[in-house]
Each structure stands twice: as C-alpha cells, then as structure tokens.
C-alpha cells in the first residue's frame, strides 16, 4: 500500500476511491477484504483520511503520511545504495522503558531501524553518521527516556567491529541477492498480468530492502556488495514499467480532487 500511495497519490492533491484501489490490488493477488482492512487500519493510524462523495468513499493522505512517503522517496531515489560520505562518527541512542510501555518501545525500535540504527547491546543502538534523533522522538513523546550521543570508535573497538556487531550484513546482502535473482532475468515475473502489477511488486520488494538497509559505510563492506547491482537493476526496471503502468492506473483509478481549505478570516 505504501508503494501504491507513493507512486499514485503522493504530490497529487487527490484521494482515490476504495473500489478502484481494490481493482489495482487484485492485479497482485490481494483480496478485497485485505485491502479494505488495510485502508481502515491506516485511517486509525492517521495515515489516511476518508472523503465522501455521494455513496463513494475516497482515501487521501494525511500530513503524517506525506512525511512518511517523502522520507521513503528520499531513501529510494536520493540516498543511494551505499554510504560513500561517512565521516567516521556514530550516533548512539540509549533508552530504558518499562514493560508497561511495551508498545511504545516497539514503535521506538521500529523507527530506529528505519533510520539506520543497529542494536549494539540491550537498550543501546548505533548508526553511522549524524542522525536527527529528535525528529524520531518527537511524535513518540519519549525524549525524557532516551540518551543521544555522537561518538567515535576508540581502540580496542574498531568501526568495522561495530558494523559486524550491530548489523546483519550477511542477511542484508542475502536480501539483495534474492532481489537480483527474482528481477534479474530477461523477462521478470512473466506470470504477472501487466506492467502495473510488476511495478507495484518491484517497488514493494525494493522498499522492503531499503527499510532493512542501514546504509553502512562503503569502506566496511565487501567490494562485491550486491546492493550496487541491485539498485541499478531496480532503477532500470522502474523506468521500463512506468509508462505503461501509469496509463493502466489512469484508466483504473477513480480520483477525487482535494481542494485546499481557505484560511479563516480572523478579522
């Protein structure tokens, strides 16, 4: 759903009719029930807002969703497959939350992973470079429970040791190799009905990899790091699928233009 919203809703000032979203997702084997459940869940999480026109219900992005999707867009199209500009520093985050706040602890961990942090030891996370941890903490309201430091490795600790300890580099590499195996053939996913389905599946596979990749320093990665080849393949296929997929989506999607609310006259 994030892939779909990022491609066809972000930046358009429109909402999409639920029935047409169901039609799109049927192309990739997702049931109507699953789509409706996902849309309802995203409304509860303040990611989507309902807009009614007659008997139809349309779904548009909230400000929170736009922030999430723009961040994803930057990670996919701007950040790059490897970190070649690392300055040798680490952002270190420590926290302590009781079991009664397990849900908030889970949310914090999820946000740290998305931001490129790896677990060094219980309650202590690290990420290469400077990270805006305040932006992560602000929506969660956990600032008083967290300690944030900028640090450098000192002997006997080496930065390479931190990479190996905090991040599953072999698992990350395996994910990229699986992506290359799935999408690197001459005609990827021949069973998919059309390029709109392939586009959504391609972007979803890539987004999952990006979410799990902490963008580690190139100097501490193997020379044959598969992310570089995988990124080139993703960009090439994305360009290939885009024209036909856009035409198919335009024919299927029922959109409602969202007019900006005029400012109130306070005079």
From TrEMBL:
<feature type="domain" description="Transcriptional repressor PaaX-like central Cas2-like">
    <location>
        <begin position="84"/>
        <end position="163"/>
    </location>
</feature>
<dbReference type="InterPro" id="IPR013225">
    <property type="entry name" value="PaaX_C"/>
</dbReference>
<feature type="domain" description="Transcriptional repressor PaaX-like C-terminal">
    <location>
        <begin position="167"/>
        <end position="248"/>
    </location>
</feature>
<dbReference type="InterPro" id="IPR036388">
    <property type="entry name" value="WH-like_DNA-bd_sf"/>
</dbReference>
<feature type="domain" description="Transcriptional repressor PaaX-like N-terminal">
    <location>
        <begin position="2"/>
        <end position="64"/>
    </location>
</feature>
<dbReference type="Pfam" id="PF20803">
    <property type="entry name" value="PaaX_M"/>
</dbReference>
<protein>
    <submittedName>
        <fullName>PaaX family transcriptional regulator</fullName>
    </submittedName>
</protein>
<dbReference type="Pfam" id="PF07848">
    <property type="entry name" value="PaaX"/>
</dbReference>
<dbReference type="InterPro" id="IPR011965">
    <property type="entry name" value="PaaX_trns_reg"/>
</dbReference>
<dbReference type="InterPro" id="IPR012906">
    <property type="entry name" value="PaaX-like_N"/>
</dbReference>
<dbReference type="InterPro" id="IPR036390">
    <property type="entry name" value="WH_DNA-bd_sf"/>
</dbReference>
<dbReference type="Pfam" id="PF08223">
    <property type="entry name" value="PaaX_C"/>
</dbReference>
<dbReference type="InterPro" id="IPR048846">
    <property type="entry name" value="PaaX-like_central"/>
</dbReference>
């Amino acid at each position: 759903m994030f892939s779909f919203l990022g491609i066809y809703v972000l930046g358009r000032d429109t909402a999409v009719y639920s029935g047409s979203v169901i039609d799109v997702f049927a192309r990739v084997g997702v049931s109507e029930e699953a789509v409706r459940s996902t849309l309802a869940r995203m409304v509860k999480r303040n990611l989507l807002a309902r807009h009614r026109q007659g008997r139809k219900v349309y779904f548009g992005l909230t400000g929170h969703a736009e922030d999430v999707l723009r961040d994803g867009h930057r990670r996919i199209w701007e950040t790059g497959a490897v970190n070649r500009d690392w300055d040798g520093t680490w952002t270190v985050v420590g926290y302590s939350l009781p079991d009664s706040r397990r849900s908030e602890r889970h949310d914090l961990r999820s946000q740290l992973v998305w931001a490129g942090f790896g677990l060094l030891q219980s309650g202590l996370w690290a990420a290469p470079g400077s990270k805006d941890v305040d932006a992560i903490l602000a929506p969660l309201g956990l600032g008083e429970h967290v300690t944030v430091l900028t640090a450098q490795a000192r002997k006997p600790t080496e930065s390479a040791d931190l990479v190996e300890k905090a991040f599953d580099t072999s698992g990350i590499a395996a994910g990229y190799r699986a992506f290359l195996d799935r999408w690197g053939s001459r005609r990827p996913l021949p069973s998919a009905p059309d390029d709109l389905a392939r586009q959504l599946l391609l972007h979803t596979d890539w987004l999952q990899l990006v979410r799990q990749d902490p963008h580690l320093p190139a100097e501490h990665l193997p020379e044959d790091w598969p992310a570089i080849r995988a990124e080139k393949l993703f960009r090439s296929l994305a360009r290939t699928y885009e024209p036909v997929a856009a035409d198919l989506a335009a024919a299927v999607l029922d959109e409602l233009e969202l007019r900006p609310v005029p400012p109130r006259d306070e005079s």
